[in-house]
Design a protein that fits this description.
The protein is mostly helical. The protein is 75% helix and 0% strand. α5 packs across α14.
């Protein structure tokens, strides 16, 4: 009976892997997770003992990754030999470099979630504004609606202009006009966001002869100034990736150029174009300076983009942090909750972009 059991154990994939001098499949992932768990347990013990003020997620990930590099090399050296161990060590170092590059993002997300979750989960955060609220309570409904409206209008303005400009540069642009458009797009890509806000404020102040003008549509114009060059550049690169053979095949069938662009070029590159549009939205949805200048801030609901001040989430976070009342913690909690809402919106937009890109990407047969 014991010999049969030993034979079955020897025939398992893991036993065969060790017998062949090779680590089992996915062993690197398991070692990495185990290293993070060990270092996380160490930092948790330090927190409970009072040596640290809170759980250190950055230290856990960093030192866990370092431990992973040492552990995978030692394990591979013992099972697979020195040559394979060196190969796994180099691979582990590349993984460590990638993890270190992600540490700021990990720290940002972790800190935002931990500090913003208490106020984020309150029932009034998504149902009330800050009107007549001077301490705890209230919510960010007015800021969320303002962000959605202003960003939505900015997208409606920017996408057609940016996409048409990209089509012109790729399909029709020749000579000095094309060079001038490319030059100004490059310049607009690098302008500070506050300059876009000052442009919108100065433009509408002169247009309406109102030195104190504040309204949501001006914020949409300021954001569109920042969005258009991103849409142009990303769409242009996607259009350039469409093989010329597809265009030539359509021309050979007698299809006019405008119809070739509409039926061949755009459907082929639609996945990348949508991704670029979502990236441009993510780029501007968190801008504070231009919206603070032209849209202003308010504690009340305002659905009208063309009248009165309109609050947005970035400005909400800034005002809650900068203008704290007597109940300081309540203001800080609302600021963190607003930041968490922004992060979730950006993550949702990126997930939506991936879904749309997958749906509309060309289906390639075998």
């Amino acid at each position: 009976m014991s010999s049969t059991t030993a034979t079955r154990a020897a025939n398992t994939p893991q036993a065969n892997a060790y017998a062949a001098g090779k680590l089992p499949r996915n062993s690197t992932l398991y070692v990495l997770l185990a290293s993070w768990i060990v270092t996380g347990a160490v930092f948790l013990v330090l927190q409970l003992s009072g040596a640290t003020s809170g759980f250190n997620i950055v230290g856990t990930v960093f030192f866990g990754t370092v431990l992973y590099c040492v552990a995978i090399y030692a394990l591979s050296y013992a099972v697979e030999g020195v040559r394979r161990a060196k190969d796994r060590l180099v691979t582990a170092l590349v993984t460590a470099a990638f993890v270190v590059a992600l540490l700021p993002l990990i720290s940002l997300v972790f800190t935002t979630v931990v500090n913003g979750l208490p106020a984020f989960l309150t029932p009034t955060f998504f149902t009330e504004s800050q009107r007549n609220v001077v301490g705890a309570g209230g919510g960010a409904l007015h800021a969320i609606m303002g962000t959605l409206e202003i960003t939505g209008v900015a997208t409606i303005i920017s996408v057609p202009i940016g996409l048409l400009a990209a089509i012109y540069l790729t399909e029709y642009g020749r000579g000095r006009l094309s060079q001038a458009i490319t030059f100004f797009v490059d310049v607009m890509t690098g302008i500070p966001s506050i300059v876009a806000g000052l442009f919108a404020f100065a433009f509408f102040s002169l247009l309406f002869q109102d030195a104190g003008i504040r309204f949501g549509f001006g914020g949409a114009i300021a954001l569109s100034v920042l969005m258009i060059p991103v849409v142009v550049r990303s769409s242009e690169e996607m259009l350039k990736l469409v093989p010329n053979e597809l265009r030539e095949a359509a021309y050979a069938l007698g299809v006019p150029k405008w119809l070739t662009i509409l039926k061949v070029v755009l459907p082929t590159s639609i996945a990348g174009i949508v991704t670029g549009i979502m990236i441009s939205i993510s780029r501007v949805i968190g801008e504070t300076a231009p919206l603070l200048i032209i849209s202003g801030f308010t504690a009340s609901m305002n659905y009208d983009l063309f009248s009165q001040r309109m609050m947005t989430l970035p400005v909400f976070v800034y005002t809650q942090y900068a203008n704290q009342g007597t109940d300081t913690q309540a203001y800080l909690d609302r600021a963190w909750a607003g930041a968490l809402t922004l992060v979730l919106i950006v993550m949702l937009l990126n997930g939506l972009a991936r879904l749309i890109a997958k749906i509309f990407s060309p289906k390639l047969g075998r």
